[in-house]
Batch of 2 targets.
Target 1
Amino acid sequence: MAARVSSTASADGDAQKNVVRIAILVVTAVRDVVQSAVKQVQVAVFTVLFGFVLGALGALFWRRLSVSKETNRKLRQKQHDATIKAKSWLEEAQKTKLTPVKAPVDGVTFTKEFKALFNAHAPIWTCDPSYSRAHWLNRVIDAAWPFIDTGVSKTVKESVEPILRDSLPSFVKWVGFEKFTLGPRAPTLSGIRTHKSHLENVILDIELTWGSDPDIIVTLYMFGIRFPVKLANLQLKMVLQVTFDPLVDILPCIGALEVCLTDMPEILDFGLFIPPKIDLMSIPGVHGMVRNIVQQSLAPLMLYPYKLHMPIMPNSGIQASSTGMLRVKFISGTGFFKRRNYSKLSRKAGKASGRMTRLLKSDTYFIKFWTRDARQLQTPPRNGDVPNWDGTPDSFVLCDRETTLFMRLVKTGAERVSNYGECQITCGEIADREGPVTLELPFIEPSYYKEECPLEYLIAADGYTYDEIMQRYADIEAWNEKAEQDAVQQRTKYFYRASTAKRSNSKVALPKTINHPTIKVELEYIDTGTPDDVDEEYEQGLITVELVEARNILRVAGNPPNPKVTVRCAKQYFDSTRKIRTSHPKWDNERFVFYNVLADLDTIRIEVTGLNDVKLGYCEIDAKLVRSNVMIRDIFPLQGVDKGAVLLV
C-alpha cells in the first residue's frame, strides 16, 4: 500500500513539472510573438512616417515647379502680347506713314553688286576663322604713324633715288622726289594668322588694307623741261607673309625679316596726275598698262617664293660661315658623383651614391656643348653616376680649326646654380688626326689655371686723377683677357694630356683627373670647304639618310635574297649590313651622313644588291626634295626590277 502511494505521489510531481514547463514555453512564445509584433509595428510606423515626409517634399517640389511653369507661361504670354501689340503698331505706323520705320533685318535684300563690293572690302576674319583680329595692333600703328611716315619717307628717298638715277636713259638729265609723304591715314591690319613650323622661325600671314591719299611727286628733267608726276588716291588690299627668321638668343632675338606676297594684290588702284591736274589713269589703256607693269615688277621681287630680305641684326643674326664641321657623339660618363658645384651657392664635393640611394633615387644629368655661344646644344638626360649615351644620334656643330669645343656638365632641375665643371678642346687637334677620335675628358672648374690679377682698382678718393683711374681699369681688363686666354690654352693642354694618357693606358699620374667626372666622347672633324670644281654660289649642306626597311625584294633563283644596301651621294658612299635570306629586311640604327652636298646638283642613289653583286634594284632621290621639305619619311619603289621598295628617313 505504501509503495502504491509513493508511486502516485511521484506521478503527481512529474505532472506538475510538466505543467510548469508547458507554462514557461507558452510564456516564452507569447513574449516572442509580442516582441515581433512590436518590431513590425515600429517598422510600419517608421515606413509610414518616412513615406509621409517624402510625399510632402515631393508635393512641395511639384507645387513650386508648377508655380514656376505657370509664371514662365504668363511671362511668355505677356511678351507675346507685347510683340503682337508692337507689330500691330508698326504695321499701323507703316500704313499711316506717321514715322519713318526701318524694315526688319530679315526683310533686307542685297543686290549682287553690293555683295561683290562687300566681299571685296570685308576683313578676312569675317570669312576665314583661322585669322584673328588685330585691333590693338592697329591702334599702336595709328599712334606711331606720323613717326613711321617720316622715317619711311626719308629711307625711301635715300635708297630709291640713287637706283633711279643709275638707271636713267641718256635723254633724262635728272630724276628725284620733290615730295614724299604717305598720307595721314595708316594702313589697317585686317587679320593675322600664324603658321606652325618645325624650324626656328615664326611665320605670319597678314591681310593689309590701305586707303590713303599720299602726296608723292616724282620729277623728271628731259630736254630742259620739268615733268612732275604725282601719285595720289591709293587703294590697296593684299596678303603679306612675314617670316621672322632666324630667331636667336641675343637681343632683339630676331635676326631678319622676310616679306613676300602670297598672291597678287586683290585691290591695287591709284591715280597719276600731271599738271594741270590731268589724270593719266583715265586715259584709255593706260590703267591696264600701268597695272601690268606694277605686277610684273612685284612678281620677281616679292611674289612667293621670292622674298624681300630685311636684316635687323648685323649679318642677319647669323655668325660668319665656317670652313669645317665637327661630329660629336657622346658615349658614356664616369664618376659623376665626383662633381663639385662651382656656383656661388654651394662648393661642397659630391659623394658616391649608396645602394639604397641608387635604388630609390638617382641624379639626372645632361651635357651642354657648343662652339658658338649663340648656338648651344645639349644631350638627352641620363640617370646615375655612370650615364650612358651610346645609341643617341650624332650631333654636328660648325667650327674652324681655331674654334674651341666647350662642354658643360649640368644636373636637371638646378641649372641656375649647378655648374659641375667644363671641358674644352680645340678643333684643330681633332682635325690633325684622320677619322673619328675617341677621348675621355674630365670636367674641371671653369676658372682652372686662371691667375688672379695682382693689380687693384684706383679710386678718386685716394687722390688719383681720372686718366690714372681709367688707365688702371684698362690695364686690369687687358690682364684678365690675357689670363683667360692663357687659362684656355693650359686647360686645353691638360685635357689633351689626360685623354692621351687615358687612351694609351699609360701609368702617368693624373691626380687632378681622378678627382673630376669624365666623359667619353667620339669626335670627327669634317672639312666643308667649297670644292675647287664647283661654283661657290651653290649652296652646300649636310644630308642624313636613315635606312629603316625594304619590302618585297626580288628572289634570286627562287630563294630569298641576301640584300645589302649601298647609299651614294656627293661622291661618298656607305654600305649597310647584309641581311641573310629575307625579302623583307629591317635595319636598326643604320644612319649615314653625307657632307658637302650640293642640292642643286647631287642626287641620293640607293642600290640593293645580293650575293656576288646581283642587282636587286635601285632608286634615285633628288636632293632638292630634302632641302625643301627638311625631313622626308617615305617608301621609294625600286627601279630596274619588277617589284621592291625601300623605306628611308
Note: Confidence is low (pLDDT under 50) at residues 1-6, 97-106, 343-350, 501-513.
Target 2
Amino acid sequence: MFVTGHASAGKVALVAVGLACLPAADSFGFSPSVGGFSRTSHASLRSLGTSGLSRGRVGVLVGVRMMSEEEEPLVKKPKPTLDKVNFPADIKGMSIEQLKKLSDELRWEVIEAVSQTGGHLSSSLGVVELTVALHHVFDTPTDKLVWDVAHQAYPHKMLTGRRDRFPSLRQWGGLSGFTKRKESEYDCFGAGHSSTSISAALGMSVGKELTDQPVNNCIAIIGDGAITGGMAYEAINHAGYLHQRMIVILNENGQVSLPTGTPTAAGVQPVGALSGTTSRMLASRQFQDAREVAKRVSKLLPSDLQRIARKVDEFGRGFVSGEEGAVLFEELGFYYLGPIDGHDLDNLIPILEELRDSKSTKPVLLHVKTEKGYGYTPALKASDRMHGVGKFNVATGKQAAPAKPGPDTYTKTFANTLCELARVDPTVCGITAAMPGGTGMDHFGKFFPKRTFDVGIAEQHAVTFAAGMAVEGLKPFCAIYSTFLQRGYDQVVHDAVLQKLPVRFILDRAGLVGNDGPTHHGCFDLAYMGCLPGIVIMAPSDEIELMRMLRTAHEIDDMPSVVRYPRGSGYGAEGLQKVFGYDLPEGRVPTPAEVSSVPIGQGRIMRNADPSAKKKVAILSIGGRLVESLRAAKLIEGEDGLGEIGVTVADARFMKPLDTDLISDLASDHDAIITVEEGSIGGVGGQGGRY
C-alpha cells in the first residue's frame, strides 16, 4: 500500500490510499491468498453486510471450478520419457521416435497440470511438438527463444526446469502464466501482451553480432493473432532492411480473436488477411503443383536455403515462395519457407537444423501450421478451443458452473447496456481489439454484426479507427482492456483528445485482475488518462452505476470519455440493497432501459459521519473499492456508532471532472480526507491534492 499526503495548520489533511502497482514488482503490497493475487468477488458479497466483508480474500475468476469432495483425485498418466527430462540438454540425444513419445507425454502433463490450476490451455497444446523441436535443435539459453504471446509457453517451462512448480501456476509466489526474465534464464524476454517478439529477437541478434558472439540464433515464435499487430510488421521491415540474421516462426492456428467466429461487419472469419490468404493459397493449388513451384523457386536461393527447400519437398509439405502469402515477407527482405506441419517432428527437426547451421545472414520466416488444442478432443470441440480455463475434468473437459448463478459480470452488464443503446440509436458501434469474448463485444455482435468491428491485436488502429468514425457522426464504443490501451496511448492523445473527438473508451479489467499477474493488471489508466485535458473519466462502484455511466458516455458528443470497471461480477439486487442501500421496489436490478445517465462531475455521499464524534474523517472512493471504504468506516466508528472518530464515505464517480463542490464540503467539515482507488500514484488522490 502507499499512503501519501500533507497536513498543515488550519488546513484539512488529504491522504491518498491506493495500490502501488509497479511492473517490476512481484508484490503489490497485498497479503497472499489462496489462488493467488485476487480481488474481492462482488458476486460473493451480494448477500453480506459490510461487517461480513473480508478484504481481498475471495477468489475472483468467474467460472473457476473447485473440485468437490465427492470427486476422485486426478490419476496421472505415466510419463517415463518426460520424467528423464529436467532441462533441454536432456533431450539433445533423443531420437525422433523418443521425441514423439516425449511430445505425447508433455501434452498430457500440460493437460493434467492446467486441470488442477486453470490457465491458458489450448495455445500450449498446439505448440508441444514445435517446443520440443526447438529445444532439441537449438542451444538454449544461449540461443534465444522469444514466445509471442507467451501464454503458449507452458511446454517450454516444463522442459526448462519448472515442471515441479506447475501446481503454483498463476498463484502468489508461483510460476507466472507468461515468460518472465527473473523466473528463468530460459525466459529471455517477457511477452504478456503481443506483437513484440520480432523486435526483441532482432535486437538480440544485433547485440550478438556487435559483441562478436560466435553463434547468432535468435528465434521469434509469433502467432497469427500476434502478427496482426502493426509492431510486428515494423520489425519485419527493419530486419529486412538490416539484412540481419534471425528466424521468425509464424505459428498459424487460425484462432486470431477470442473467441474466433464472432459475428462482425466482416463476417465470422478470423481477423486479418494472412489466415485467409494462406487457406486460399493452399486450397487453390494441387499439392503436386506446389511442390513443382518449390523446386523452381528454390533455384533462386542460396545453396543452404536450397537444401532447406528440398527438405520441405522431401517430406511432402510444400515450399511456397512468390505466391500470395509469401510475397509480402519476401518484398520486406525475408526468405519465406512453408507452410509446414507444425506437429510433424519428422519434418520440423531437419528443417530447423538446416536453419540453425545456415551461414546466411538473411532473416528467414518459417511458416508452420498448428492446431490450437491439438491432441485433446474437448478443446478441439469447444468454441473457444478452451483457450483460458478454470479447473476442469480431464476426461470431459467440463468446467462446472457455479452451484447458484450469481449476478451478471460487469462485462455482461456493459454488453447488455450497449445493445440497449444501439437498439434506439443506429449510430452506436462497438470496437474490440481481438477480445470480443473478454469485452462482451461477442454478445453485441450477435445482435448488431454490421456495427461490430474486431480489428485484431491492433489497439493503435482501434483508437484512430474509432476517431474516424466519430468524425462522421457515429458513436463508437472502443472496448479494450485497461492494460492493452497502453499500446494505443499516442493515438488516444493525438487522434482523440487533442481533436476533441467523442470516442467512448470502455476499459474492462481496470484494477487488479487476478492470476494473469503484472502484465494484465489495469493499474495505470487513471494516471495515464487523468493527465489529459478535455476528457471525462468515470468509474462505477456497482452494476447500476455502470449502466448509468454508459448512458452518460453515450450523451457526450464534444470530447472523449472513459468508463473503467473491474473484472468480476456485480452485487445483484440483494447486495445492492444491503450494501449500498438501494431502494429496489421490485426486488430486482433495473434493466439498461430503466436507468438514467449520471450528471457529469457529480459525486455522491454514501454515508455520513456521526455528528457527535470528536474527530471526523472523510473517505473519498472511486470505482470498485467503495465496499471496502464502507466497511472501514463501520469498523472505525464501531458497531454502535459511538466511536471517537466519525467517518463519512463519498463516491467520487468521476476523476475528471472532479466534483469540487463535494470535495470542498468534505474539506470544510472533516479533519482529513482519505482517497481510496485501485490504481497507481497519479489517480484521484493526485487530482484531489492538486485541487
Note: The chain is about 35% helix and 15% strand.
